[in-house]
Amino acid sequence: MSPLSGRPGRAGVAAHLTRAERAGEVLRQLRAEYPEATCALAHQSPLELLVATILSAQCTDARVNLVTPALFARCPTAADYAAISAPELERLIQSTGFFRNKAKSLIGLGRALVERHGGEVPDSMEELVALPGVGRKTANVVLGNAFGKNEGIVVDTHVARLARRLGLTREEDPVRIERDLVPLFPRPAWALLAHLLIFHGRRVCRAPRPRCADCRLAAICPSAES
Ligand code: SF4
Questions:
Q1: Atom of ligand 1 nearest to the CA of 218
Q2: 224 C-alpha to center of ligand 1: Å?
Q3: 3-state class of 160 per DSSP?
Q4: CB neighbours of residue 157 within 10 Å
Q5: CA distances (Å), 99 to each of 63, 110, 131, 176, 220, in order?
Q6: Measured between alpha carbons, how far is 194 from 38 in angstroms, rounded to an integer?
Q7: What is the pLDDT of residues 150-167, one digit of tens each?
Q8: Catalytic residue among 61, 80, 123, 156
Q9: Residues in contact with 157: Cβ distance below 8 Å, sequence separation at least 6, in sequence order
Q10: pTM of the full predicted structure?
């Protein structure tokens, strides 16, 4: 039964919930709100998702999805990233921003995958974060969405902001936020949780001005503005 069942009114409800109860409600409510929530980066393989996630740094997923069809056609394998010239790759990914650094990362990534992993994307956190340009967030995206392995929770700017506003953490550092979130949610839901928070962060709980009046979490959110 929902911890909100039988409680009168909305005012003050947030204060009565434990963090675990609030977390359960967040997952339940957002699941109902966004049944379509999924990874927004178009991909058909772990390599494509890894590349798309690297390109998504400081860039929208929609912009990345405009760039990747031509990129994936030109570079279907890790060996293609290892062999492509920097100027050609930079031209292909230019509109995603920071394209020189990203091209360097992708070429280094292609070489490392060929040299260390026979051209395949590894499916462990330890091996993924050892690759050039791959941090814990990117590794969590790939593990959760391409391999179906919930090793951790993706903490991007939306997840971090919503976790704080919803009173699920007081931390600023993504690794510490992840550490706070992990015990609050069932492991099979970790990848979905990030998608749900990202969907809600883009549509309702926006960075500069949250739309609390339109938010179905307002009754349980300690930051709700009336
Ligand atoms: S009530 Fe406001 S601050 Fe809380 S989650 Fe909703 S939009 Fe964000």
A1: 1
A2: 5
A3: helix
A4: 11
A5: 13, 16, 18, 29, 41
A6: 9
A7: 999 999 999 999 999 999
A8: 156
A9: 201, 207
A10: 0.89
